[in-house]
Specification:
Length: 227
């Protein structure tokens, strides 16, 4: 059981607590800047459209979806989907988030290299996410080392995927803030608010990576102890 697992207590649990703290930071930054309306009255949807225009992208639609902070870019459908609190909102947070998603569309349009690497890893990472730890745990229970190692190897692709995701997310935010500044969508103070929202959101990916690294180290150390 996990409470008897020393490695879980010293590695995974602190990482999970950090992840919870970061999630609280994101909600706080979003809540604060969603109450600040930009002086130009620009909606999230209009802001995303400006980023697409800046990069000369004409084949990507912008749609509204239900939910809160469910915003994402779907490269298969060529659609930027913005949540209800972003699509028609004129808040500083909405503009930042919408432009970030449009930044992802620009990455795909330019064949941004980390996107290619991430897509190549994705199929194995999906298998590792759902079955890596399970295989390792079964291997531990049965004392069957090859199964342990197979599970660890699969889960390592999850860590690699999340590692490659970091430059993708940071670059999308960098693109967003660059276009916001160069096209004058927000003033100087509003840009600071948008940057805070995007910086907090980016840290969720850092926290997720730390949790996965901690979990991988736990599996590796446990497997070494079973030798």
């Amino acid at each position: 059981m996990i409470w008897y697992d020393y490695y879980y207590l010293i590695l995974v649990l602190p990482a999970m607590l950090l992840s919870l703290i970061v999630q609280g930071w994101v909600k706080s930054a979003y809540r604060k800047n969603s109450k600040i309306l930009n002086v130009r009255g620009l909606t999230g949807a209009a802001a995303a459209a400006r980023v697409l225009s800046y990069y000369g992208i004409t084949n990507v639609r912008i749609e509204q979806i239900a939910g809160n902070l469910t915003d994402h870019y779907d490269p298969k459908a060529n659609v930027i989907r913005l949540s209800q609190g972003v699509y028609g909102s004129t808040s500083v947070a909405a503009v930042g988030i919408a432009c970030h998603e449009a930044g992802h569309a620009a990455q795909h349009a330019e064949n941004y290299s980390p996107i290619k690497v991430r897509n190549a890893i994705l199929p194995v990472a999906n298998i590792g996410s759902s079955g890596g730890i399970l295989l390792a745990v079964i291997g531990f229970a049965l004392g069957f080392r090859p199964l342990m190692l197979a599970g660890i190897a699969l889960f390592s692709f999850v860590v690699l995927f999340q590692l490659v995701t970091l430059p993708v997310e940071f670059n999308a935010s960098s693109r967003a803030l660059k276009v916001i500044d160069e096209t004058g969508m927000l003033d100087e103070q509003e840009i600071k608010g948008a940057r805070k929202v995007l910086s907090a959101a980016a840290m969720t990916y850092v926290a997720a990576l730390i949790v996965s690294i901690a979990s991988l180290l736990r599996l590796i150390l446990r497997s070494r102890n079973r030798r």
